[in-house]
């Protein structure tokens, strides 16, 4: 799977394959946990969540799977953890491909939609989602992004959308019509 790491490990004298679905670099499990600790320190949060990724051992040829730590970050967003919210916003701003990326980004947007966001957070999210629409980048996860934008409102972006949206792109137009109907119904 794209960006996953595969290596071998030994447990009780048996060699087995480990598939780690966490990315490398900025989105590695260690880098995410390090940023989380830094954000908690800056915000004065003393009780840190355990962001250890879930692991499962398969007795067959699949070996051991280490699931993305973003699953734990998403759970943190759902509990209202502000450091997890910050990482979640960074995640939906990222264009890089990830193992389970569409699902993780969809779940991140859904969690952000259900939590308390301040105006700075809403402005940051609006900028990303509107920018994606205008540039024609509407991947699978954009469905959840559109619901998030509908909830937090356009914040003055509607005239720019009207002017710059690519009306020749049927995928973009699907979301344009969704937003327009929400506006006409008194939402956003």
What this model shows, in words?
With 188 residues, the protein is of the alpha+beta class. The protein folds into 2 domains: 1-116, no CATH class; 119-188, no CATH class. 53% of the residues lie in helices and 11% in strands. It has helices at 29-43, 70-78, 82-93, 101-113, 119-135, 142-152, 158-164, 170-184, and strands spanning 5-11, 14-20, 55-57, 64-66. A 4-stranded mixed sheet has the order 1-2-4-3, with no helix packed on it. Strand 1 (5-11) and strand 2 (14-20) form a beta hairpin. Helix 2 crosses helix 3 (82-93), helix 2 (70-78) runs parallel beside helix 4 and helix 5 (119-135) packs across helix 6. The longest helix has 17 residues, at 119-135. The protein is globular and about 65 Å long. 29% of the residues are buried. The model has no long low-confidence stretch (mean pLDDT 91).
Cα separation of the termini: 38 Å
Fraction of residues in β-strands: 5-15%
Q: Compute the gyration radius: what is it?
A: 19 Å
What is the 3D form?
globular
**How does the helix and strand content classify structurally?**
alpha+beta
The major β-sheet equals: 4 strands, mixed
Please give the share of residues in helix.
40-55%
Spans of 5+ residues with little confidence (pLDDT < 50)? none
Number of helices: 8
Sequence of secondary-structure elements: EEHEEHHHHHHH
How many separate domains? 2
Spatially, the strands of the biggest sheet line up as 1-2-4-3
Number of strands: 4
Whole-number mean pLDDT = 91
């Amino acid at each position: 799977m794209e960006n996953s790491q595969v290596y071998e490990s030994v447990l009780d004298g048996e060699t087995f394959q480990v598939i780690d679905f966490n990315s490398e670099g900025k989105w590695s499990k260690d880098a995410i946990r390090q940023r989380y600790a830094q954000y908690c320190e800056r915000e004065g949060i003393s009780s840190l969540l355990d962001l250890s990724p879930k692991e499962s051992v398969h007795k067959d040829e699949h070996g051991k799977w280490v699931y993305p730590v973003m699953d734990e970050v998403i759970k943190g967003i759902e509990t209202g953890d502000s450091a997890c919210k910050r990482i979640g916003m960074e995640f939906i701003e990222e264009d890089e491909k990830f193992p389970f990326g569409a699902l993780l980004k969809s779940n991140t947007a859904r969690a952000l939609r259900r939590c308390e966001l301040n105006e700075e957070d809403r402005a940051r999210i609006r900028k990303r989602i509107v920018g994606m629409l205008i540039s024609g980048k509407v991947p699978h996860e954009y469905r959840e992004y559109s619901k998030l934008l509908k909830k937090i409102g356009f914040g003055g972006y509607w005239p720019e959308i009207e002017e710059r949206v690519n009306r020749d792109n049927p995928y973009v137009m699907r979301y344009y019509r969704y937003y327009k109907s929400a506006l006409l119904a008194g939402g956003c």
